[in-house]
Amino acid sequence: MPPPQGQTPSLVASASPSEFYALILQSCLKSGDGREGALSAAAQATGRSVHAGVIKSGLWSVYLMNNLINFYSRSDSAADAGRLFREMPVKNIFSWNTILAAEAKKSGLDAAMRMFDRMPKRDSVSWTIIIAGYSRKGNHREAARIFTNLLSSCAAGGAIGVGRKVHTFIVKLGMTGCVAVANSLVNMYYKSGDVGTAKMVFERMSLRSVSSWNAMITLHAQTGRLDLARAQFAEMTERSVVSWNAIIAGCNQNGHDVEALHFFRMMLKDPSVSPDSFTFTSVLSACGNLEVLRPGTQVHASMVRSQGLSCGPLENSLISMYAKCGKVDNARKLVEHSASSNVGVITFTSLVEGYSKLGDLQPARQIFNSMKHRDVVAWTAMIVGYVQNGFNSDAIELFRLMLEDGPKPNNYTLAAMLSVFSTLALLNHGKQLHSRAIRSGQVDSVSVNNALIMMYSKAGSIVWARRVFDQICWSRETVSWTSMIIALAQHGLGEEAIALFDQMLLAGIEPDHITFVGVFSACTHVGLVEEGKNYFMQMQNTHKISPTASHYACMIDLFARAGLLQEAQDFIEKMPVQPDDIAWGSLLSACKVHKNPELAKLAADRLLAINPDNSGAYSALANVYSTCGRWEDAAMKKLQGFSWIHVKNKVHIFGADDGLHPQREAIYEMAAKIWKEIKKAGFVPDVDSVLHDIDDELKEQLLSRHSEKLAIAYGLISTPEKTTLRIMKNLRVCNDCHSAIKFISKVVGREIIVRDATRFHHFRDGSCSCKNYW
Questions:
Q1: Is the domain of 611 the same as that of 720?
Q2: Fewer CB within 10 Å of terminal CB in the chain, N or C?
Q3: Could you read off the pLDDT of 352-373 as tens digits, one per residue?
Q4: Which domain holds residue 616?
Q5: In a domain, 302, yes or no
Q6: What's the 3-state SS for 576-617?
Q7: PPR repeats span which residues (predicted)?
Q8: Taking the model in full, what pTM does it have?
Q9: Rounded to the nearest 5°, which phi and psi values hold at 642?
Q10: Tens digits of per-residue pLDDT, 609-634?
């Protein structure tokens, strides 16, 4: 048999038998005049001879069989092509597409569609064959239907590459003017993330249906451009229930819940439409977010009247609405009477939030225990509920149970547990969780990293907090920079906090209102009054952030701690809002340092008028009176101070003159020893800080047994030499303890980190990081 037409002898000689026969078949196809079935008699005879030779030689390959099928289908022998296809034990996509093309041209589109439906897998060629067949026959409606199905498949599967090829084919067929096809293109590009092309297709549409407008409203709303969604909604001359649902859901999902209810009221006035379950779901969500019960109950009544709107998402929204509005009992009853056999995660989360607000998590735990399928969201919701209500031990215990018998914790779970370890200053536990996050790959999560920054900071390890931040500062997340600024401020590193803030601005990262709380706090801790005033003006004039109560409280604290009590009082009088208890508390604390009992009495009275149960106000006022020698006035209830230290996975808590610890004798022996040594080193007890009119010897005895000194004594006898001691205290550290701990750090050669109610103190070699300004 001579070499195939157009092939050199050397190339043919190097081909395998299958490839040789395939080359001959391809050469036969090239001998025609380009029309189907227009092969010469000689070419057809050669092709059949090749088939006979294949059978005799026993050769078989998918590649060779595909070439034979292609030869028969192109030589007007569709029956032979079909028989050969049916006999193939193994077929690939080329086999199916070849026979599909033959069926579409010879047997008709009905047979081709049956073949198309049987295909185990389809590619862009398969779709092109079937659509082109309908288009050639003039059946453009069916071609459009298939196009819309294909584009929907591309959108669902994220196959944007295939979708673009289909778009090109649509343009070639001149079907871009078909509204249904154009709508599908908009939807495909939008769901694939190509918002720009979706808008371009919409803008080029000569005719638009209600569905076209609905698609664009949904696109704008879900990409956060609610302004564009509103504008296009306003342009619509005809609206369907889907149009109203799109704008209401868009407002709800973008946090514009008041506007969502406004559009809902407008919808009720439109006689051409009626709300459906999707409408009610968004409206109930908005009611829950706003904690407005009345419209929510009206929707509930409408649902009861309709008797056909009890779908799962709608039930969840109704239960969530009642829970968020404080009607947890109503929500619980709906759960108990729900048609669903198992409480959904969304429903359960809403119930936990509701019970958390009431501070009663026992019913939530009962529901959690009864759930048949508890996924990571349910576990996390229950843990977060415990954390938000201060039930840290319960949160830790549930987390341990989750690790043993539950799903793998997610980013939110780890962030919640890091918050617990932050509160309790459990540094070792936090480090273990950090290691777990690294192993699981969750360390890349912004929420986990921010929680790590706060955990290390609150546990006294500002160095590790900075290391974590340095690994993620490229993320340009405002919350990450803010967390680090606050951490530096709390550790007395005000200049570093301000420098980081300036670096943040240079990087083009926009600060928020919480960032400025950290900046003002940094200025306060190091006495940068003028800088604080400048930043206060910059916040308003440059960043257009209106001051909140927290910002005003920070400024009052800034003036008061710097001894500018009159300026603090003048600032209060000029404030456009009423000072809160934090602001008055800051002023009251400063009055003790600067010995101003009259202003302290005013601040305490105002503080107690806002929060009558604030026992700290009485304690602070008593401190002021005792400092000024007014012993009778100082004889009032004082908030009990506690300090604690974490040693060998156990928290040890001490009160002043505490005698309950099982190692009390060794603790007091060490406390007495240290007291003598620091006095020899030059320490002078601050007997004026004792709130009792007793002799100085007894005052010294009381001072030597303050809770933080006992905690330090226990740390000295329970940890190896040179180990850093980390002490936590519920109140602000007193003058005597602050001075004493500076001497202790030098005498024992250890770093001692104390976290009090307002900040961190790093004592090292006889000095404190606060530079005696706290």
A1: no
A2: N
A3: 878 877 888 888 888 888 887 8
A4: 547-639
A5: no
A6: CCCCCHHHHHHHHHHHHHCCCHHHHHHHHHHHHHHCCCCHHH
A7: 92-122, 123-153, 209-243, 344-374, 375-409, 477-511
A8: 0.63
A9: -135, 150
A10: 887 766 566 666 666 665 555 545 55
